[in-house]
Amino acid sequence: MWQRPPAASVIPVDSRRTLDELSAAVLAVAEHRSVRDVLQTIVGTARTLLDCEYAALGVPDDQGGFAEFVVDGITDEQWAAIGPLPRQHGMLGVMLSDPTPQRLRDLHADPRFRWWPAAHPNLGAFLGVPITGSLTDDDEILGAIFLANPNGRPEFSDDDERLLGVLAAHAAIALTNARLFEQGRELTLIQERQRIARELHDAVAQTLFSLRLTTQAAAALVRRDPDRAIAELETVTTLATEATNELRQIVAELRPPDLSREGLAATLGARVALLNRVHGASITYTIEGCPKLAPKVEEAMLRVAEEALHNALQHARATYVTVALRGDDHHSTLEVHDDGRGFDTATANASHRLGLASMRERSHAVHGRITVASTPGQGTTIRLEVPHE
After folding, report:
1. Per the CATH hierarchy, to which homologous superfamily does domain 257-389 belong?
2. Fewer CB in 10 Å around end: N or C, the chain?
3. What are phi and psi of 344, to 5 degrees?
4. Which among 158, 127, 139, 120 has a CA at the least distance from the CA of 46?
5. How far apart are CA 86 and CA 69, in angstroms?
6. Domain range annotation of the chain
7. 158-199 and 264-278 helices cross at what angle (nearest 10)?
8. 126-133 and 52-60: which strand pairing?
9. What is the pLDDT of residues 108-120, one digit of tens each?
10. 386 pairs with which residues across the strands?
11. How far, in Å, CA of 140 to CA of 96, rounded?
């Protein structure tokens, strides 16, 4: 006898919405977007799923403030009125030092509460979860995510805390990936420096040592045995040629292979795309009529761009950076502008900070002109103009 098959289980609408929102947060991490975009997605997801007025996520720096602080539920006008980023005090400081989640019925009533600016929204019921990573044996607190003012209920629940813990774990993955990328970049630079040092020692240094000895011998023989002195000087010429060739070979190997293969515009675009995936700042890249350049010019412009981007992201804590590559029949121009902390150019020039000396040396080597415009608190613009040969 035919029987009706059992009805398929139906996922409740609220559960489907939760799964969809969680899926979006997970995909944001998996797609390697910029760290700030991932954190913003996670904060927005937390506020939506746990149905509350405010959500925020902070990543501390080593100066008592925050390297990243993203919010949801506050307008741009409110955010501007609040003022500078918060410091690591009060409940924020607690979450950055204690891995235990903090669930409070009223934030004001807690003795650890400190204060906030006059324009800050009022936060009542509070739920905060530290973001912990496992790069070391002990879980390190990488940041904290917190919510406030649940809609239609007096406080957050156990289920809310568990769900926020899941989102905090995904934030930890994004932050750990960004840190690992930076560590890998630094390791690559160290290894490259060590390789260059070995090459210089094994090849050029030995040749220069022989060159010095031969020169001393020729000088001693000039009056006593001119013919032998001439022979020694011929050896000096040979050794000097060898040293020049060895140095030229080492320098050629330092040229990035993708620069030789794809050219400056594409290589710089790939660098910007990579940085956009792993950093919180928004980096835009524009090209306008840039012609094919000599290899030494392309390398100089790429290295200046890399140094300027590194300074903007690591030192200036910029949130927005523009990279522009332009060219006409006479000149090619690279310009990198950021909205970071800025600095006193006179002081920086005197102390050779921020890689300015290196950028000027590269500009001089290709007969270019580099200008640096910066003011504390108002960002920095670095412009390199190189004439076409």
Report:
1. Histidine kinase-like ATPase, C-terminal domain (3.30.565.10)
2. N
3. -85, 110
4. 127
5. 9
6. 13-178, 257-389
7. 140
8. unpaired
9. 888 888 888 888 8
10. 332
11. 9
Find the length of the chain.
389
* pLDDT digits 0-9 by tens, 100-154: 999 999 998 888 888 888 888 889 999 999 998 754 445 688 899 999 999 999 9
- Three-state SS at 337: strand
Q: Is the pTM of this model over 0.85?
A: no
- Is the per-residue pLDDT at 351 higher than 50? no
CB neighbours of 255 closer than 8 A, spacing ≥ 6? 295, 299
Of 91, 121, 209, 103, nearest in space to 157 by CA: 103
Count H helices and E strands in the chain, helices first.
Answer: 12, 10
Residue 46 structure tokens: 């937390």
* Between 152 and 38, residue with greater pLDDT: 152
| Residues pairing with 139 in the sheet | none
Contact 75, 82 (CB under 8 A): no
CA distance linking residue 28 with residue 170, whole number of Å: 9
Are the C-beta atoms of residues 297 and 312 closer than 8 Å to each other?
A: no
**Cβ atoms within 10 A of the Cβ of 89, count?**
13
102-104 and 126-133 strand pairing: antiparallel
Q: What is the pLDDT of residues 291-304, one digit of tens each?
A: 778 888 988 898 89
Token pair in block for residue 330: 């006479």
| Nearest by Cα to 53 from 107, 117, 123 | 123
Q: Is residue 305 within 8 Å of 359, Cβ to Cβ? A: no
CA dist 31 and 23 (Å) reads 12
Q: Are 42 and 171 in contact (CB under 8 A)?
A: yes
How is residue 148 written in tokens?
């406030």
